[in-house]
Design a protein that fits this description.
The structure holds 2 protein chains of 2 kinds. By secondary structure, chain A is an all-alpha fold. Chain A has one domain: MetI-like (MetI-like fold). Helix content of chain A is about 80%, strand content about 0%. Chain A contains 12 helices and no strands. In chain A, helix 5 runs antiparallel to helix 7 and helix 10 packs antiparallel against helix 11. Chain A starts with 17 loop residues before the first helix and ends with a helix. The N terminus of chain B is likely disordered. Chain B is globular, with a radius of gyration of 22 Å. Chain B starts with 17 loop residues before the first helix and ends in a 6-residue tail after the last helix. Chain B has 11 helices and no strands. By secondary structure, chain B is mainly alpha-helical. Chain B has one domain: MetI-like (MetI-like fold), CATH 1.10.3720. Classes of the chains: A mainly alpha, B mainly alpha. Chains A and B meet through helix 1, helix 2, helix 5, helix 6 and helix 7 of A and helix 1, helix 2, helix 5, helix 6 and helix 7 of B.
Amino acid sequence: MTSPTATTEPPVTPPGQSSLNARLRGRRPRPDGARGPSRWLVSLVSLLAALATWAVVAWIIDDNILPTPFEVFGRVADFIVSGAAFSNFAASIVKIGIGFALALAAGLPIGFVMGRSRFMSTYFSMPLFVLGNVPGLAYAVFGLAIFGVGATGPIVVSALVAVPFIAINVAEGVRSVDGGLLRMCRAFDRRPVDVMRHVYLPAITAFVFVGVRYAFAMAWKVEALTEVFGADNGVGFMIRRAYQEFKVADMLAWTMLFVIAMVLIERGLARIETRVFAWRKELA
Amino acid sequence: MTTATAPEATPRPLPADRAASLWSRRGRSTSSSLIALAASLLSMLAVWQLAAEYGHRVPSIGETIGRLVDEAAGGHLSTNLAVSMNRFTLGLVAALVVGTAVGVLMGLSRFVDYALADLTMAALAAPAVIWALLTTMWFGFGWLTPVTTVFLSALPFVVVNIAKAVRAVPPDLVLMARSFGVSRTHVLRHIVAPAVAGSTVAAVRFAIMSAWNGLLLAEWFGSTSGVGWRSRYWYDANQLDGFLAWLVIFIAFLVLADQIILGPVEHFVTRWRTA
């Protein structure tokens, strides 16, 4: 309640993953410099307490189905040392990268016409809404059934998950372009290429970046799920293999790596965003 | 209160679900948007039909509808939906109750916020499938597997959004109202309620979406009844039309929950906003 930013936050309904990001971003400007160390201390103590609870419960149950934190950390260390962690994460991220490239190729033109025309905006919003509401299970199963085991399924699935985010944010970026600027371009006979390059592009890039950042978490989860159902490498595939071999410690270790990688990438993207688009502050 | 007052100049992102409110709002306004919606629906069906025609193993619309009718006639539709709804409601209500309690604490106390922020973030980042697999191993094929998965998948979304709602209450307005002797119910009704409404609806919306995904996964891996199990039954039988018929039900449920129930509620509670 003491946060001064709380009241200045825009009262928009946060999207699923973005609530996480909004909280990350919202926290940064808090003037808690004096209390800085205590935040880390409290956070560390609570994490240690959670680990201790886990260890005690695992010790009481004393069964293979709930390994102790030490076993799991040991497996995490093994995966990192052996290079399995790196190769599987790299495989997953390459698939998402290709999927996002496809999503950009489809989402940019769709978003552009949505921003320019009300008719097209209504036309595309229903299919985009449906794409955004398909449960992850359905994407995963269809990815496997139609494309078989391999890289194509996860790539197509992550593209389909990302398209609505990118298209809707591009449309919003196009709508944010100053109409007076466009009329002036027309009055001075600017070529369409110039208008694209100097008016639309700067307006859209920041929105696209935000779209990509929010789509990333969603897309990666569904992509990992698709790998659980059918793949020959990647994080999801490793979780599936550990499940089938009944190695709970391995499952938890891969999940832990997944969570850590996801949080690190999200923070990295948020940092890039504030750095690259710092110039927009003057515009606001 | 739009981007101009945002703490950072980054553009306000729009979630995929926002498209929904856009099409429902504009759909009512003019007849040209009705044409657009009709064209949109027809194009989607055409794309489906084309995919069935030329794609590999994609069932056609007719086969899917036929299978759906068979499922309804055979009683599988209603029994499995009833079983799943029981589990879904149980897990979701538990997540809403626990999540609201934790979220209010996080919103009110900076100490609790610091203590739980990292754990909540990790829980948000964890994929639902891991809960489904773990609960299947822990609890076997009973009712506890889907209910726990639903609870765990929905919980972090409730916590984060409720904490955000609590932080959105303007403290200076509450203080002013108190110093002017405004009664407690008036403060609740006119200051607190409007401030928390938006994020609370968001909490329920994302909890429903995430919980539904968790339910399907848990029933797929660790259940012998329910909608997720039934769709797996068709998949294992290598009958993709049966699976697609259930997928139509899954999407329809989310669209109904979003458009028919949450949409109007959100519109009503946020009607004070001018933007």
